[in-house]
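S., here's the first fold you wanted:
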Amino acid sequence: MILKSPPGLEQAFQKLHELVYYPLIHKEKFVHLNLDPPKGILLHGPPGVGKSMLVQMVAKQLDLKVIYIYSSKIQSPHLGETEKNLKEKFDLAEQISSDKNIPTILFIDEIDAIAPSRDDSSTHETRIISQLLTLMDGIKKRKNVVVVGATNRPNSIDSALRRPGRLEREVAIELPNRIARLGILDFYLCKMNMKTDFLDKNELVSSTTGYVGADLLALCREAGMHALNRTFHSKSKLDNLELLENVDTSQHQIILNLDDFRYALNVVVPAAKREHVLDLEPVKWSDVGGLEKIQKEVEKAIEWPLKYREKMMSLGARPPVGILLYGPPGCSKTTVAKIIATEYTNFVASDNKNNASDLGGTASFFAVSSAMIFSPYVGDSEMFIRGIFTKARVVAPSVIFFDELDTITGSRDETSTDEVQKRVLSTLLNEMDGISTLPSSNTKHYHTDVNQNTKIDTESNVNKSVLVVGATNRPDKIDSALLRRGRFDKLLYLPCPDYNARKQILKTKLRNIPSTLDQNCSTEIDLDVLAEKTKNFSGADISNLCMEAALIALRRNKSLTAVVDMNDFISALDVVDASITKEQLDFYEKIKDNF
């Protein structure tokens, strides 16, 4: 028999095929050997990886009947109704397999929703689990039935289901590696009936690390729609039907190129990153002023490993594992994180043409705050930390940004640090140590997803990096273990802007405000004077000053021709003060000297 497996799922298909084929098609061999064939299989992997499709294709090739059990369709709020619905499905499988002599797969999708761990279950859920266990035990009497359960959270289902005689065999579906993604893309592109002669598939595959089959299908669809819009020179996005009515598909007149996929990559978020996407406003280095020194350090930490990693490794120059941004409030720490997300990663949609030639030259960006981490349930916070690092490794090169790091980890030297913070700190230390010990050879490497109990093939990522960026106003509250080499080994101090930096920030802010800057008039804005008068102002303070000056100008002249002049800034200085005191600045300077 020639097996035709889905693209990118060859190994999982082969294993599932064997586990279903022998018990249902050659059950007499088990009888002869006096062996009990496996009656239950647990299929697990990330969402969208192809679990349901795998079952369908195995059933189709073996000519098996599939009976589907969906949580949303059998669950009922009425007492005993869900248990009854479950039993009816099992009885139907027995009827088809026995009366009609048709081998049958009983497929339970999202089985974790039907049978969650009884440690966290209500009385109603416990009754459902008990019924399912009873029905599973009865499978031994049903000679031509195999139960297949699918989940993306195998550790969340009740442990009794994974015992021998129930879901005793497991098939893990890994995230597709580079070769698998190429096969999946080829499969979908061939079906699109578009010209792909000018499409560099190798470059495209490099930019889709962490994408599963469903993500790649959505990516191809989005790129195809963009190609249609581009072909017809549409100024506004047309709907699918209107586009398709005008397409002469027989002539292959639609050309699909990398620009279409560049657009699609900014729209389609892969499953590995979907849970940690935040809406950050795009910010570029050119949008801010006074950060030239910080820009050089960030470029060395992020851009150099992306462009020159092999050269750095050959010289023994290992990229930093972590960067800690610290300094007074309002001095652009979070802004630098937004710039990282915009300039160096594929996290924020951007039409920056400078990066258009290199799809593979960007990193993935994950933003984490304390509100996302802390949970009232024991172990959830640590699981979240492990999960974010797992996903970051899978889609490496990547950047994980922890805002207000001191509130997340605390310091073990502080008596006020609670137990949750201590456990989160311990988990973070372990995960960062895992980054620093990633192998640098090109050997095949596996990482186990602690949330999914799934081995993830990261052979294409062992030469790539995960960079952790933390931001804090209180570096003295950060545990000293985090500041050791191999963890946050790059400490960047963002001080209050000096005279030249304040002048540059003012000039940058005034680019977007109608003003008398450089107009050679009596009320011309004098940046030198303003820079002198804003000593100890943070970047945020200067932004507030510009906003206040604009409001004063608006009160003075409510017409569309209103402009901000020097007098408006002088008035604004009477309202806006520096938010950082000299004592605070001395405090940060002392910390910098100690670091």
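And the second, which I think is the more interesting of the pair:
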Amino acid sequence: MEKEMINAKRQMVSGKDGEDYERERLSDLPECILLHIMKFMNTRHAVQTCVLSKRWKDLWKRLTSFSMSYYNGRIHSYNNFLSRFLFCRDDSISLLNLDFIVFRSTARSKLLKNILEHAASHNIQQLTITTDFTLTKIPNSFVPLIFGCHSLKSLELFMSSGSTLNLPKSLLLPSLKSLHLTNVSFAASDNGCTEPFSNCKSLNTLVLQHSIHHDAQVFCISNSNLSTLKLVNIVNPTFQPKIVLSTPNLVSVTIDVSLFLSCYELASTCDLPFLEEVNIDTGALIDSSVIISWLQVLSYVKILTLSSHIKDLSSLAATKIQPPCFVRLESLKMKKVLPWNMISDDEVKTITEYLLQNSPLTCRVGVIKC
């Protein structure tokens, strides 16, 4: 009975004593577990744990990541915190993940150069850089510093609309597996063609968003390892570019078009025999014949999802434009989006009959409401 009363008293610990008890329980965890927990925190909050106890004082210095992709305070304080974090951390520990914002003052000072040099010398593997909308000019040293990080496995560059990043003709990142580029421009060769990804031998995921190819008439996505490709509003204000796929192991393709200028020709050097899924979402008015030309290239797909914005395809049923032969198609899905652009059941029937007239009869047809 006495033992039960003692246990009951322990369970009734509350208030400040209870908080201290829980904090001590947390502090008793192995260092590797504490660091793993801190990895998911905003880095400023992770550093603030140094005041909890002696055990926590220097723990943050062994963090392998820095993540502050959102900040609404004083820019000077952000830059100062980032600089102090890199200066005070344990220099023997790798910095595997770095996610930060580049403000105009960051780019003008030596801080940006110091950040990227520190990352490159500390085995950086995941790098995410977002530029503030006030940044209109990116330093010339920016690109070679980034693409000199040969340990990179994941790279995400989110350039603001006012700071388009000019990239070299070829990207040499042998370990890179995932690449996400927003508002970038690729330099073209003398023949008007650019082929930037062929030397990224490990690349399997590529996302290109709001990219502008100033002088590239033909944009070649050439990579034998690439399995996932997402194209979002590929823009050129002066001419319609041609995108050529040389990606024999491509599994998934997403084409997202919501801008009127995001129209381009699509071609492929092979049949894409391993293509599993294709998702085409056209929020802008794209000519039906353009969509059919895309589908001709992607005709080996197994699962095809189309948005209701392509309901103009139903008008092609009365023309002589032939749809592709989907030799492997197992499922065709139509997404019903936006109440004022709903597609009727009759239109769905007309479109599916048109698209599947040259394809196997075993394909499943469905409608997704979202």
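Why I say that: The two ends are 61 Å apart (CA to CA). DSSP finds ten helices and 18 strands in the chain.

Talk tomorrow,
H.
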